[in-house]
Amino acid sequence: MEDLQAFSRQLEELLDARRDKLDRIELPKLKESFKNFQSSFIGLNAVLHKKGVLHEDPYKYDLKISDVTTPSDAPFSESEKADQMSVRASQFEAYLEFLNNYYQFSCDFLTMGRIKRLLALVKYFNFSLFTETSTGTNTRALAEIAGIVKKGTDQLSTGLIADSVSQLDKASRDILGRLQDLTDYHKERYKLELRQNVMPGLPVSADLVILRRDEAIKLIKRKFAELAPDRPFYPELVVEALLEDFSPDGPALRAEQLRRFAAAEEKKPGDAGEKSFKVLLTEGVHALSAASFALEGAVSKLGENSALLSSLDQGLGARLKRMVRKIFSPEEKKLFYQVDFVDPVTGARATKALDFGGFTDETDKKTRFLASLAQRGGASARRIEGMTDDQTYSFLQRNIEELQRSLRVLAALEDYFKSEIHGEAQARAKSIHVEMTTIKGAVIKANQKKHEYVAQREELEQMRRLGIEDLAP
Q: What gap in Å lies between CA 165 and CA 291, rounded to an integer?
């Protein structure tokens, strides 16, 4: 009995330390992996929508989410595939958004019940075996739909799909590993609470456990229901606790538990340098690539607004101005708009002439460039791999600033067309609010990676000034 009490005390100390590490280090990493998973799926979904093999979910705004779950996995006919997968992909994306916005990544919140739901969500599509011969209905259907794009001539979209699937596979593996660590913690904490709160006072012995185990489980279940009626009862964990405490192999099983959790808390060699600084910068660059489709969509909508405004501007005065301009300046083909720019620091407004055609041409080039950054192994990616840390930092900073300038122009044009398109035509004008939100999200994430890089470099420099060289990567 004293051995069991000593084991419980040791295990409790190790579990307390494990919980602290999970809350401080592991679960923030889990949250980051889920954000990467969501970002990669949004990228995949965007390509499939752009190529027309998936379409908007008509019931998207009817979905009411109160907790994480999974879309349907019911079978469907071949003729229903595009419709069903459009709805399921939309719902899958919505559940990921809910998870990343409303879930608390802590040991207390992520109970075994919630972990089970997270596991089901991550496994809904099997991105490790993302093939048209997959045994999973949803994985196979989505792979078939992606295959339609791959069989086409658009190599850029094919590369983006391959990269998104690769990133989803990587993120899902990381998520599953971290959820397994969290599950192990909860299982041992559950068994420890059984030993501390439920089993004391019960007539449980080695003979009862070995000869009449079902009876022992019933005794524990009855008391458990009295003490914690709202908590789930896991008979398989009760059996593990009984075998560890009362079976002939108990001492060896308990020693293994202590060894396993003690080893988990030991610092692994090279942990401090496990993540190189340049990885943070390349992750920031990759985050910017997520803005490519949103930027393309925004420019396309603004082009439609420009055409709409031009169709409305058919008065006699406008026609005369265009005629005079054509006679005296035949080379003048540019389209300028007088738009208001807002200073992001002072809030002051300034009206400037914007070359709309020049902006759209420049943005089209930027869109193609950002999309190329997502192609791992492509020319742009190889160029970044060959850069030094300082060169990569400058590259990331420059592209963040360029996207921020593009956002200011997009916002100015959004306001301009809203103010210039009047009457019934306003209903036909396109808003780019969603696209700007996506671009802002990409810029924010890239900035976060840049600041993480700066913070880690400063920490390393401080350690070196203190004479601590071992932690350098």
A: 18
Token reading at 401: 């600033």
Q: Identify the CA nearest to 96 among candidates 59, 141, 65, 52.
A: 65
Measured in whole angstroms, the distance separating CA 251 from the mean position of its chain's CA atoms is: 43
Give the whole-angstrom CA distance, residue 415 versus residue 408. Answer: 11
Listed in order, strand segments (DSSP E) in 290-410 are: 336-342, 349-355
Tokens coding 13 = 């100390």
- Comparing CA positions, the residue from 74, 88, 36, 471 lying closest to residue 272 is 471
Q: Write the single-letter amino acid at 165.
A: V
* pLDDT given for residue 377 in this prediction: 63
Token pair, residue 120, equals 């089901």
The closest of 267, 293, 333 to 434, measured between CA atoms, is: 293
Taking alpha carbons only, the member of 105, 100, 101 closest to residue 22 is 105
Give 330-377 pLDDT, tens digit per residue. 444 578 999 998 776 677 788 999 999 999 999 999 998 888 887 666
Residue type, position 428, single letter: R
What pTM was estimated for this model as a whole? Answer: 0.67
> pLDDT by residue (tens digit) across 253-264?
999 888 888 876
